[in-house]
């Protein structure tokens, strides 16, 4: 049995990696960052004091420790990344940037079965984001896991394009995707083509995984899918009512029961501009098919889940909008019970 084994987001959780905000650094606002975050005018002059940054990081680490403790109380083994100085410069050929954080392993590491894939992320500041997880990856490899990395992208300026409506899109020059573009559902994976994943990325993933998996292209949000759609368990979805309707649910899932969430609470943000919308409030983490960890402030979401028979466990998380990631983003499940199954 491999140390890594996870086919979906809902079977009983056994081991998980939880990220860290320590060492957070503000990268330069280059084309790739503008493409991902679409910051407001004047964002280049954002001024965050050292005291504010230290407070936000400390509060985030406090909340992540509560998350880790909650998971451990539920019998889940929790792992953390190595500490790193994310202000160090990085660069490839024609561009330079600095690293950003090790807060969101869901974005950079894709677990499919016994395989961990380092994603070819589209934002330059995230080029080396898997490095603080490398010792863990080596441990998992030594424990029998397959460890792959998608082709390292060049991330040239012409990568970052816009369609006729002015929506950011990625050129089809090389395979690109964040791991958080993907919904895992047993032998079926749903790949969101967006400003953080292109069709070439979906094709590479399908070939890397082989005939045991089907990769479906979808387009349901502008970037990651964790604030738009979750598979809570076979036959049940949680969907963003502000972005989707029944016709926009991926076709293979349209017959499933859907819990429509339409009332995210605004936690505010600690920097000059938010890195996520209020919908980060639906970025939840399933412990098993009956138990879901939700942000403490999202009482409406907890009520919705409980009305459908789930146990909602509230955990504080103050800075989802500040950093642009919630519980799903800030974790990557390494091992869940269960076998490879087709649910469709």
UniProtKB/TrEMBL annotation:
One of its GO terms (molecular function) is glycine amidinotransferase activity. The active site is at 178, 224, 329 (amidino-cysteine intermediate). GO terms for biological process: creatine biosynthetic process. Keywords: Transferase. Belongs to the amidinotransferase family. This is Glycine amidinotransferase. It comes from Amycolatopsis rubida. The lineage of its organism: Bacteria, Bacillati, Actinomycetota, Actinomycetes, Pseudonocardiales.
